[in-house]
Structures are given as C-alpha cells and as structure tokens.
C-alpha cells in the first residue's frame, strides 16, 4: 500500500463532497447528534457506516476485537457513557460478524500472549452455552453460532450498565444485537428481547 495514495484519495473525497454540498464540512464542524451507538468488531472487512448506509454525524462508533462490552474496559465504558448520557443516543447496537477471527482464535488452544485475557471473555460465552454449541457438528456453523451468542451476551453486558438502565427508564433507549454476514453483505437482526433480558437481570444488576 502506497500511503501517499491515501492523501490523494482524501483530496478527491473532499472535492466530491463539496461538489454535492458546498457547506458539507462547515455543517460537520457544527457538532454531532447521532441517534445510534454502534459497537462492532475491528475487522478491516466490516465498515460500520457503509454497511448501514449512514454518513458522518449519524452514528457514534466503537470497535474492538470481537465486539466486546466488558465492564472493566474503560475505553468501551467511556464510549457507552458518553454516547448514552451526553449524546443521548436512543439505540445501542452490538454488531458481530460471521468468520470473526477473534471468536475463532478464542476457541484455539494456542497461547496468544496479551490477547489471552481479552479472548477469555469469549471463552466464557462458550462456557455458558457449551451444551448448545457442542451439539453442532459442523465447525463453521458452530463458530457462526458462537458469533451470535457472543453478540447476545455483550448486549446483556450493556444492559447491566447504569447508563443504559437510566436511559431506558428516562427515554426508552433500546439495545439491539446484529450480525453482519461477510459472505453476502446482509445485516441480520438477532431480535434481542431487550425487555426480557432487562427484567431477568434486574434483581441482581438493578441500579437506582
């Protein structure tokens, strides 16, 4: 990759935007008011705004390996708090994707160094759902199902947070779980039953 091309591409992008709207960058500078927080995977094949057909200012994005929401991850928790409490988004999406390298790596026995601690959280998802997953004979389908279950568990982790609970109570914020199929380009709604999960965990995780 010739990095000089990046700057040439940037110049062309600026010209293209201004050709359509001469105030494009002036409007961008006025601030943001996204309706959606998107938590996705860092995988280079999955571009958040493109797959949703959205542009700058329409979605607040956080990405990490295997789209994790971990309570001790100050980066993710800061993003969630800022988006929900200050930007006042009304929807939070956790979006995984099939053929996720992070999910697959978590199921390998190899020592992956600094990644071990991070991937352990995915292994915990497998542990919770091992009966269902072990019944799937096809390895590819098993990984695909683990991707879906991981998304669901990260949605549950979101629901445990004070920011999400307060926003749900105050303005009806919703949490959604999606999967992006890299083989077809299709975005799949896992139809997470947000209210059911919230009700199930409130006895333990309820915050006033």
UniProtKB/TrEMBL annotation:
Coiled coil: none annotated. It is an enzyme of class 4 (lyase). Its cofactor is Zn(2+). It comes from the Bacteria. It holds the Pfam family Pro_CA. Signal peptide: none annotated. InterPro entries: Carbonic_anhydrase (IPR001765), Carbonic_anhydrase_CS (IPR015892), Carbonic_anhydrase_sf (IPR036874). CDD domains: beta_CA_cladeA (cd00883). The keyword Lyase applies. Keywords: Lyase, Metal-binding, Zinc. One of its GO terms (cellular component) is cytoplasm. One of its GO terms (biological process) is cellular response to oxidative stress. Binds 1 zinc ion per subunit. SUPFAM superfamilies: beta-carbonic anhydrase, cab. Belongs to the beta-class carbonic anhydrase family. This is Carbonic anhydrase 2. It comes from Winogradskyella pacifica.
């Amino acid at each position: 990759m010739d990095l000089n091309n990046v700057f040439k591409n940037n110049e062309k992008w600026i010209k293209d935007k201004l050709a359509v709207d001469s105030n494009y960058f002036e409007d961008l500078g006025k601030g943001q008011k996204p309706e959606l927080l998107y938590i996705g995977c860092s995988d280079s094949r999955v571009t958040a705004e493109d797959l949703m057909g959205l542009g700058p200012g329409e979605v607040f994005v956080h990405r990490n390996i295997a789209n994790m929401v971990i309570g001790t991850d100050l980066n993710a928790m800061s993003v969630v708090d800022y988006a929900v409490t200050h930007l006042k988004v009304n929807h939070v999406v956790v979006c995984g994707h099939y053929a996720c390298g992070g999910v697959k790596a978590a199921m390998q026995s190899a020592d992956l160094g600094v990644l071990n601690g991070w991937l352990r959280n995915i292994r915990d998802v497998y542990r919770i759902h091992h009966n269902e997953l072990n019944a799937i004979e096809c390895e590819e389908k098993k990984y695909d199902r683990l991707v879906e279950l991981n998304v669901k568990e990260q949605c549950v982790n979101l629901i445990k947070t004070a920011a999400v609970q307060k926003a749900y109570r105050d303005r009806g914020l919703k949490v959604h779980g999606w999967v992006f199929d890299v083989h077809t380009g299709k975005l799949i709604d896992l139809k997470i039953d947000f209210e059911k999960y919230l009700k199930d965990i409130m006895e333990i995780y309820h915050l006033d």
